[in-house]
Amino acid sequence: MNRVVIDKDRCKACKLCINVCQRKLLELADELNAKGYHPIAIHAVEKCTACGLCAIMCPEASIEVFKEIKVKKTA
Amino acid sequence: MAEEQVIFKRPAALTEKYFHYCPGCTHGIAHRLIAEIVDEMGIQEKIVGVSPVGCSVLAYNYFDFDFQEAAHGRAPAVATGMRRTLPEDRYIFTYQGDGDLASIGMAEIVHAANRGEKITVVFINNAIYGMTGGQMAPTTLPGMRTTTSPYGRDTTLCGHPIRMCELLNTLVEPRFIARGSLSQAKHIIKAKKLLRQAFELQHEGFTFVELLSTCPTGWGLTPENSLLWLERNMMPFFPLQVFREPGTMPETAKKYAPDLKVKDDKKES
Lengths: 75, 269
Hints:
The structure holds 2 protein chains of 2 kinds.
Chain A: E1 3-6, H1 16-20, E2 26-28, E3 40-42, H2 53-57, E4 63-68
Antiparallel strand pairs in A: 1-4, 2-3
Chain B: E1 4-8, H1 27-41, E2 47-51, E3 66-69, H2 75-85, E4 91-97, H3 98-104, H4 106-115, E5 120-125, H5 155-158, H6 164-168, E6 176-181, H7 185-200, E7 207-212, H8 216-219, H9 223-237, E8 242-244, H10 251-255, H11 265-268
Parallel strand pairs in B: 2-3, 2-4, 4-5, 5-7, 6-7
Antiparallel strand pairs in B: 6-8
Helix pairs in contact in B: 1-7, 3-4
């Protein structure tokens, strides 16, 4: 499964990543972070294609994206 | 555990310190692009930055390499001094906003470009003075409301905005002049390529990259709307293009070609 690591305390809830996500997987969380913002959270990580657009758009460099390398099964 | 491919990781050339910029400010994106390029080129030990006065005055806190603060607008002059005293292999860049570069530092930037100093200038243009509270800058668009032009910029009184890339493109010496934007993911990827090209060409001559940015707080818009505002209003006025690459020169600069010299009357007679 692809992995998205969000540094919640860096997030300032500008929502630029939410708009850029083609699959609409990001949303603001209910809890607050240390700065008093509602940080972003990913809700259906299994649908993530690891395109990395959210990380490119994030002004705080708070998102890290990892893509799983699928190994083809040989018969 | 399955093997993973890193799509995006926080660059090593950024420190762990949190940015002080407002939510949605594109300064963070510009910082990250520079840090990524420093990582890719492996020049963390050889690069020196010069920070301006403006919102990015504290940029030295966020980059994990040498940085120097300059007086307001004088970053190109400080970078000139560094270029002439430090060893040849150093990379030197200035990071300046539009109030710093196009207003207070206009003389320094034009003369540094005219001398062809071997530095890279990263110019962040958001059409407003951000740090001091949203006053009118030289790049403010006609009719744009700021705290010092509450009825919109009056061009009969304040003139039209300055297009820095076009202005510097009339000079002979600069090697690379380009304008990018930070409004969309595709423009950010292109902007990174422009910055990379500028850093690679730095040892050949003066390189200049303008990046169109937002100021959600100064413009009074949400971060998402400020990106739309940038695309709708700033991009028609400041077209995205590469103005100068090695080997190209516009007609105005060609007219005063580098090999054109004063005719020595005494020798001829």
